[in-house]
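thread from #wetlab-drylab

HS: before we spend reagent money on co-crystallization trials with S-adenosylmethionine, can we at least see a predicted complex? here's what I'd submit
DV: go for it
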Amino acid sequence: MNNTVEIVNADVMEWFNRSKDVVFHLSFLDPPFNQGKDYRFFEDNLSHEEYWGWIEKVLAETYERTVEGGAIYFMQREKNTEFVLSALRETGWSFQNLIIWRKKTSAVPVSTRFGKQFQIIAYSIKGEKSRVFNRLRIQPPLPPDYKYDRETGIFVTDVWDDIRELTSGYFAGDEAIRSENGERFHKQQAPIALLLRIIMSSSNVGDMVFDPFAGTGTTLAVAQQLKRNSIGIDIDPDNVKLIQRRLKEHRHSDDISKYFDYYRYTDGLASILGMEGTQDTNRPKSKQATLFEK
Ligand SMILES: C[S@@+](CC[C@H](N)C(=O)[O-])C[C@H]1O[C@@H](n2cnc3c(N)ncnc32)[C@H](O)[C@@H]1O
């Protein structure tokens, strides 16, 4: 089966206006956070009302095109948690989890409060019951105070502390896409490991994954490898060109297969990965896997 990938250079609301017949099974929203960043194609300094009014429109249009039981993962700054939850509720979504993504990076220091060290991802669905929820099991390194190895790993919870953010330093490694001057091409590039977890948890092979703020196309790069269809929208033509190149290049650092071992105790893993009957899922398993290349 061949999967489709559609990359569109457009304003997302303008795209919604001319795309009434699309159907989504899973959406990932990582919008600009309205924090006054210097973007070329949109205003990142809207009033509170304008920004959240716009976000609600995007959520409502996404909801309308989502199948019953379909999922949305909406990523935001932790300080906006109350607005995220309210916007999802107002547009019809049923709340499931507030995922804390503790990004393995240093805290942002604040002198009058505790330093900030996580981002939120609100997971919601359309309707009462999720259409797909694959309970993933992982095998992270044993914490130092644990005596016995975990024979079959542990279920993923709502605290994700095993996925590193791609920051500017050396930790970003090869995965961060860089311009010729060595700077990161896009400061908000999400890690492959993050989208892998989301797409594995809430979709099946052949489903349609939607990303209205595609950026560097991480969602599409992962969906393509997991045999899901995808649609990505971005307003910046340079991002769209980059995504087209990224999807053709199949960079080693974008290859999701290095993470499979980490999820080896997940029931039905081969079918979640779209690899039933292929040799790769029969690879020898290592004792301890990690989400990060050594
Ligand atoms: C936080 S970034 C997303 C990063 C992405 N998750 C990744 O992994 O690279 C937000 C993106 O939204 C795009 N954007 C902003 N306003 C938009 C709009 N009205 N319609 C479509 N895309 C928009 C920006 O160009 C930017 O690339």
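DV: Confidence is low (pLDDT under 50) at residues 287-294.
HS: ok that's useful, forwarding to the group
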